[in-house]
Amino acid sequence: MGLMQLFKFKGGVKPATNKAQSVTLPIAKAPLPSVVAVPLHQSIGGTPRPLVQVGDKVLKGQMIGEADGWISAAVHAPTSGTVREVGMYAAAHPSGLLTDCVVIEPDGEDRWIERQSVDYKTLTPEQVRELLRDMGVVGLGGAVFPSHAKTQASRSVPMEELVINGAECEPYITCDDLLMRERAAEVVKGIAIFRDLLQPKKVLIGIEDNKPEAAAAMAQAVQAAGEDFQVVSVPTLYPAGGAKQLIRVLTGKEVPANKRSTDMGVQCFNVATAYTAWRALGHGEPVISRLVTLTGNVAEPRNYEVLIGTPMDELLAIAGPKADTDGIIMGGPMMGFLVPEAKAPVVKATNCLIAHSPALFPPKAPEMPCIRCGSCAQVCPHELQPFEMYWFARAKNFGKTQEYNIFDCIECGCCSFVCPSRIPLVQYFRFAKSEIWARERDKKAADGAKTRFEFKQLRDEREKQEKAEKLAKAAAAQAAKKAAEAAAAAAAEGGAPAEAAAAPAAQSPEEAAAAAKKAAIAAAMERAKAQRAQAQPQNTDDLAPAQQQEVADIEARRARLRDIAKTELAHPEAHPAEAAPAAPADDGQTPKN
Amino acid sequence: MEFSTSPYLLKDTSVRRVMTQVLLALVPGIVAYALLIGPGILAQIAIATLTALAAEAAMLRLRDKPLALFLGDGSAVVTAWLVAITFPPVAPWWLTVVGVLFAIVVAKHLYGGLGQNPFNPAMIAFAVCIVSFPALMSQWPGPGSHLAPAQQLDWIFGLAPRLDGMTSATPLDALKTALRADEGHSGPLPFLAGNAQAVIALCYLAGGLFLVWRKIITWHIPTAFLGAMGLLAGLLWLWQPAGFANPVFHLLGGGAMLGAFFIATDPVSGATTPRGKLIFAAGVGLLAYIIRVFGGYPDGIAFAVLIMNICVPLIDMYTQPKVFGMKDQ
Ligand code: SF4
Ligand code: SF4
């Protein structure tokens, strides 16, 4: 283990780790479940499109959902069997909402597709990334961000450090610990893949110092592979395993909320992600299983290799939950959640299931008022002022919560952990964030609707004006015709007057049309203006400068749109292309965002 | 099943536990007080505690709040103890009662109860009483006078006539008088009842350090308070040793230690950000010095704290710490 200077992050707490229970036994393979339900959406980004239908036979490892866009990752059948359902199913999500799943009835044979190992060094980086995406490799530390999308260095900033996260700071969870102890060589091979894609100057593997066995195994594997990765023991302090915290500890860099870590020359992957990357390329195995710690109120806590899609209750039963178990926490006790539906399937983000019991996690004491003791601020790893955010979240003053940087909050739970008044601070922050998102969405929808409305008005005006033009033309033609007839009659009578009559008649159709058009445009513009003025009372006077700026920006955007529309009115035939995509007024589509 | 959200693991703590530790930290100072100056202080603490609990219960009932939960949080008892030990030990019982009632009913509950008071309740009590009853609030056992326990109780409960000769001003007052009379002041320590007050102050210091160690308070407020007061006192003393007392006298005399560790650190009414705490406490230290040296009151802590309480929202607003990753932007 290399000796190197470590940095500190502010705050952090030291909850009882409760890891010893589940590390005594080696990793075991969970038995084939009675059913597997594979959610299509298991990563950040686009929801994969299903590739199978009810009744289809699938093989283990067969792609059943194809990545939708670049930020997305494919999903695969965890075992061979028959597709019984493609539709809504219970999900591992705190909301309790259903999600799109492919439900497979295993045939018991567990028969693989043909697996092909590839020598990724013969492929271009682009091909490697595509392969990782199609193998469903995503961040297994819990964030489930598609890994391939993180393997591109910034164009302007050279990659300095690749940080590999083996910290595993959450209490109870030990799956990364066991993975490193038992499969270190393959983790190292996976790290090499990310190293080759990103080309960093150095690779730092951070492991909390309460896992000496894992650190030793990793160091040995690194040496055996002839790599120059550094295995670094970091002080045990929750949340040292947060990506930003670990980057800080190992490199001294603080990646702010508004920046990508590659913009600062650093990137971070979890050890389990590295392992699956190697299995994908080196063995042709897509991500169809993962290690899950079964612990808490169970007879035999242990780590299992579990197929994605395994129902949680069925899985937990293996560890023998005790009689007073009254729920399942997915994830750790600091950031996890009680699953609302026990049959919800294990997903790629499921690193741990904790059998919940009132004895293990006593009901929370009643909430008291905040005494501004500042404990929450002292432990916040992002150096926020939780009690101020709480105060404004409670008052539903969400603008203020944003001023206090609520979106920098990683929901680590340190603040709630120490609060003597037992205020569920994180719960308030989640509430505030979701409210802000909802309002953002509403506002966007409303803005979209307003823009569409204005376009529709302008278009109506244009149609009216075109009608007027037509009428004018018809009238002019009529007049011309009459004049011509008159002229003809006159000509029949004698030569000279015919010319005199014909001259104005010849001019008249064009002039009349032009005049009518002008008048119609002017009238239309006037009406539109008046309507706009009515529709938009300018109640923007007592806003904060930032908001006024925002309003001004929006107004400017609208003005631009109006200008485009106006040019269109004046020269209807000049810009047909611009009008078409910009005015989806009546097609009944909702805006995509 | 109770459906709560994470974290499910909580540190074993509560408001009650925090308050209990504050009380515990006060004990050494109180014991020294009782031994060196007299047990009257114990009677005062008892009177104050009972009054505070009764007032708290009545207000909770009026405001329709869960009685057991809030009465047990210990905050009223902390206020009561601070009132008792900042008031003269031989003050008549009703003065203590009036002070505590003011602290609990007006300064705390009329402002919204626990966590809502913009002013330090104990200091409101002190300020109101010293303005309303200046003579009674200035009667301290004189230098070298040892009042018998029974006599102290007689005074507190009004059973014996108060002899003006037996009580005098605080050491700070005495100093002020002495300096005005051009008698100079040479001793390094306050001289009330021997060095009793310095010993008590050191006990408060020990209790305060316990609170820092237990992470109930941070170092910022005591350090800035004592630092600012000591610095100003030191400068003036260096400039005119005959005209000003030395800084040790100021730090160990009057309510400086108590104020620095137990009063200015009241979280509810004080500044909360690290830099804010430094500014807030330095302000209290400086103002307290100015008031006690140049003002008309025996000590300046109470007014200094109340004045700085007013500035807290502003201080907090302008001292918001930079968040993670935003320090050099
Ligand atoms: S820890 Fe709780 S009581 Fe203390 S300031 Fe934060 S929210 Fe308030
Ligand atoms: S949950 Fe958010 S506010 Fe609370 S300590 Fe963690 S980052 Fe800070």
UniProtKB/TrEMBL annotation, chain A:
Binding residues annotated for [4Fe-4S] cluster 2, in chain numbering: 380, 409, 412, 415
Q: Which cofactor does it need?
A: [4Fe-4S] cluster
Source organism, top-level taxon: Bacteria
- Identify the main location: membrane
Q: Which Gene3D superfamilies match?
A: 3.10.20.600, 3.30.70.20, NADH-ubiquinone oxidoreductase 51kDa subunit
Which positions in this protein are listed as binding [4Fe-4S] cluster 1? Answer: 370, 373, 376, 419
4Fe-4S ferredoxin-type domain: residues covered: 360-390, 400-429
Q: Which Pfam families match?
A: Complex1_51K, Fer4_7, RnfC_N, SLBB
Q: Which stretches are tagged as biased composition: Basic and acidic residues?
A: 554-576
InterPro entries cross-referenced by the UniProt entry: 4Fe4S_Fe-S-bd, 4Fe4S_Fe_S_CS, Ion_transpt_RnfC/RsxC, Nuo51_FMN-bd, Nuo51_FMN-bd_sf, RnfC_N, Soluble_ligand-bd
Q: Region annotation Disordered: residue ranges?
A: 529-593
Q: Where in the cell is it found?
A: Cell inner membrane
Report quaternary structure and partners.
The complex is composed of six subunits: RnfA, RnfB, RnfC, RnfD, RnfE and RnfG.
Functionally, this protein is described as follows: Part of a membrane-bound complex that couples electron transfer with translocation of ions across the membrane.
Q: What is the protein name given in its UniProt record? A: Ion-translocating oxidoreductase complex subunit C
UniProtKB/TrEMBL annotation, chain B:
**Broad EC category:** translocase
> Could you say which cofactors this protein requires?
FMN
Quote the function comment for this protein.
Answer: Part of a membrane-bound complex that couples electron transfer with translocation of ions across the membrane.
Natural source organism: Azospira oryzae
Q: How does it assemble?
A: The complex is composed of six subunits: RnfA, RnfB, RnfC, RnfD, RnfE and RnfG.
What is this protein's record name? Ion-translocating oxidoreductase complex subunit D
The residues that cross the membrane are 30-55, 67-87, 93-111, 118-137, 189-212, 219-238, 244-264, 276-295, 301-319
Keyword Transmembrane helix in record: yes
Source domain of life: Bacteria
Cite the source lineage.
Bacteria, Pseudomonadati, Pseudomonadota, Betaproteobacteria, Rhodocyclales
